[in-house]
Amino acid sequence: MRIAWDRRELLLKVVYYGPPRAGKTTNLEQLQQMIAPEHRSDLISLNTYGDRTLFFDLLQVSLSQVGGLTPRVSVYTVPGQPRYRRVREIVLRGADGVIYVADSSPERLGENVRLWHQMHQQLRAMRQEVPIIIQVNKRDLPNALPTQSILRALDPHGKYQALEAQAKHGVGVKEAFMQILMMILTGEIV
């Protein structure tokens, strides 16, 4: 979190982290639709062939004043593919909060766990302690794993807050975003 005193702005960075196709970009697309145009930028996406995130997606959001400062939030996604590990590390650097998007598909559980541990390794290496919440996405899948099974695999001690979502329908998107902002602004680190 930084303050640009000359502009009276509180500059925040939120990163959506998780496996490929878990719904990170979909979260940003839905946020863009939910936020009035005068309070957000257009969504910037650097995609590969097939609309997979290449480097990151970025959405800028302005919020109501807090303590005389206007929060400006840079919201990023990271690519989930294994070959983009270094890109994930670069985008994660300087984050004020992370929303970990877990995929509810049974076949994605291993990937959820791998990326979860990688994210924690990267944060430790950068000596960053930031608020993290888990968004268990794709709850509408007919074969979705029970939320508790996913959370036991990721967070066996129940340390992190978790929310269910159906990002493609906008369910749980705003709630996760607002929750991580509240945690950042109140200094809540798990």
What is this entry, summarized?
With 190 residues, the protein is of the alpha/beta class. Helix content is 31%, strand content 27%.
Can you tell me about this structure?
This protein has helices spanning 24-34, 85-92, 109-125, 147-154, 173-186, and strands at 2-4, 9-17, 44-47, 53-62, 70-77, 97-103, 132-137, 161-164. It is α/β, with parallel strands linked by helices. Strands 1, 2, 3, 4, 5, 6, 7 and 8 form an eight-stranded mixed beta sheet that branches. The radius of gyration is 16 Å and the shape is globular.
Architecture blueprint of SSEs:
Layout: E1 2-4, E2 9-17, H1 24-34, E3 44-47, E4 53-62, E5 70-77, H2 85-92, E6 97-103, H3 109-125, E7 132-137, H4 147-154, E8 161-164, H5 173-186
Parallel strand pairs: 2-5, 2-6, 6-7, 7-8
Antiparallel strand pairs: 1-2, 3-4, 4-5
